[in-house]
TrEMBL record:
It comes from Brevundimonas staleyi. Keywords: Cytoplasm, Methyltransferase, rRNA processing, S-adenosyl-L-methionine, Transferase. It catalyses: cytidine(1402) in 16S rRNA + S-adenosyl-L-methionine = N(4)-methylcytidine(1402) in 16S rRNA + S-adenosyl-L-homocysteine + H(+). It comes from the Bacteria. It is found in: Cytoplasm. NCBIfam families: 16S rRNA (cytosine(1402)-N(4))-methyltransferase RsmH (TIGR00006). It is an enzyme of class 2 (transferase). This is Ribosomal RNA small subunit methyltransferase H. GO terms for biological process: methylation. Belongs to the methyltransferase superfamily. RsmH family. Specifically methylates the N4 position of cytidine in position 1402 (C1402) of 16S rRNA. S-adenosyl-L-methionine binds at G33, G34, Y35, D50, F77, D98, Q105. Pfam families: Methyltransf_5 (PF01795).
Amino acid sequence: MSGPHAPVLLDEVIEALAPKTGDVVIDATFGAGGYTRAILATGANVIALDRDPTVQKHADAVANDYPGQFQLIRTPFSGLSDAFAETGAAKLDGAVFDIGVSSMQLDEAERGFSFMRDGPLDMRMAGEGESAADIVNTWDHGPLAHILKLYGEERQSGRIATAILRRRAEQPFTRTLDLADVVEKALGGRRGAPTHPATRTFQALRIAVNDELGELTAGLEAAERTLAPGGRLAVVTFHSLEDRIVKAFLTERSGNAPGGSRHAPVAVETRKPSFTLQFKGAREAGEAELAANPRSRSAKLRAAVRTDAPVWRAAA
């Protein structure tokens, strides 16, 4: 499958899920339906989740091609367990997550995700709640600089926050290119940088607007609660912040987390692993996929199989 919305690491994801006729698999990030179609082609049934209302046209096309095998439920990751219960299916055999903003969303200027296309400064995947414009126009310097540093890993977060507050005192931000221009000037221009100076700022705002990291953690915990013993989990990430969360979750739940030091020993762990890793580390795209789809460059796949052990208590 090719094109701007081609699913990344598709062959590796299908291998990790190993779907077969009669299985029930959740595609927690439906998007344009790339993973879903590949899963359905094996004879498995798919429950697709997505909080973005614009994906409905893709869902309608899939439902037409695979009648009786597919349904879409409008919900974020955190609603995975409730969505599965709503379907009345007996057991969940697999779940796949493709984390981050899709090329489909970036290509639509009116969604406000891209600093390369002029559009309203929005970034809301579900079209609800606080927008990026709300954040840059109302948040105080400290909280704004904090999310730029935390979610964007932006070293000059304080300088950018100062520039935003100075400009919004004259005129509020409403457009993507306007914000991108202010950030670029605050950082002294491009100076031959390979990436746009506003890249990290836009990433941070998008993550904050959609609570992406919180939703990822909630989604992983929901998958742990919902997958049947032997059920398979596959997660594709595109950024170190996301991959760090997935790696830590699976490392802990598979019983491979490091113990305490001799100076501060940890309590003896009595919980049994709720997952077993399918392979060590993360899998990345091969040369052929890298050449065909540049988006796969930063993609990492981690996968695990649910054991019959009880669910671990979520972190406080």
